[in-house]
User: Which sequence fits this backbone?
């Protein structure tokens, strides 16, 4: 009546899985020649290892590898160490427990003075200052970031000005110094913690019988108070919402001093002697 084709009989397949891992960007597995997979699991990072060390002029490299299959999960750059006057001065890692910076050595005999750091805020600028250290060639300023102190500036002077800090945020700084090519130990460094509260720092322009004060707006300030500073005392003259004011009926060729305070979050910014601006009116 009819004929039909019967498929060939295929022997039953037995999986044989390779002992070598196969992987993609997220997982690894063992695989049979037929494509069947077993032991599928996500990668487990080793936490990263420095595979290329940074130098003074080139970046290094840190590699993150799966501890099971060896798959390279990612790489990231390690900042170059940088140089300063021919001395290598690393920024990665930044401040070790003991001084191991290439190019610098530490000797307790050389150091007897400790840095004492002072802070002041002028407008949106933070000023760090310290007493001059005998025979110091240079000072290094560090800022505490992400769990470690990071070198941000070096100077031959005994003060630095820092901008770009956020109003209301607290910051930690550390200052070290160099004598005869030797970097001071941490024990002789100066530390300071400061909360940035922006103040109105006025500029003064004088006429014959008047003075105009103007300043940058302080974030979140509702109003400003203007004070006349006389014999160590601040005498309030007015409160304004603008960022400038003119003071009239003054005497020619006379010196006047003023302070401006801002009202932020329900309180006035503190006033110190360093906030005083002094100006002399023009002579007739």
Assistant:
């Amino acid at each position: 009546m009819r004929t039909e084709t019967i498929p060939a009989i295929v022997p039953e397949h037995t999986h044989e899985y390779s002992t070598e891992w196969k992987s993609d960007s997220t997982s690894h597995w063992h695989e049979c020649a037929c494509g069947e997979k077993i032991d599928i699991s996500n990668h487990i990072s080793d936490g990263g290892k420095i595979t290329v060390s940074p130098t003074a002029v080139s970046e290094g490299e840190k590699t993150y590898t799966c501890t099971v299959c060896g798959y390279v999960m990612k790489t990231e750059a390690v900042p170059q160490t940088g140089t300063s006057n021919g001395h290598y001065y690393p920024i990665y890692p930044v401040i070790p427990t003991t001084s191991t910076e290439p190019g610098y050595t530490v000797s307790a005999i050389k150091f007897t003075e400790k840095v004492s750091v002072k802070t002041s805020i002028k407008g949106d600028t933070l000023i760090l200052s310290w007493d001059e250290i005998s025979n110091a060639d240079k000072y290094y300023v560090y800022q505490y970031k992400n769990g470690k102190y990071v070198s941000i500036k070096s100077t031959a002077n005994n003060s630095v000005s820092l901008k770009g800090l956020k109003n209301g945020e607290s910051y930690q700084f550390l200052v070290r110094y160099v004598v005869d090519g030797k970097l001071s130990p941490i024990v002789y460094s100066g530390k300071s913690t400061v909360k940035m509260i922006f103040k109105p720092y006025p500029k003064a322009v004088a006429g014959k019988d008047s003075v105009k004060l103007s300043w940058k707006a302080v974030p979140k300030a509702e109003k400003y108070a203007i004070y006349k500073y006389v014999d160590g005392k601040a005498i309030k003259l007015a409160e304004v919402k603008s960022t400038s004011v003119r003071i009239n009926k003054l005497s020619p060729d006379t010196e006047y001093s003023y302070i401006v305070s801002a009202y932020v979050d329900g309180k006035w910014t503190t006033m110190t002697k360093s906030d005083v601006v002094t100006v002399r009116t023009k002579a007739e």
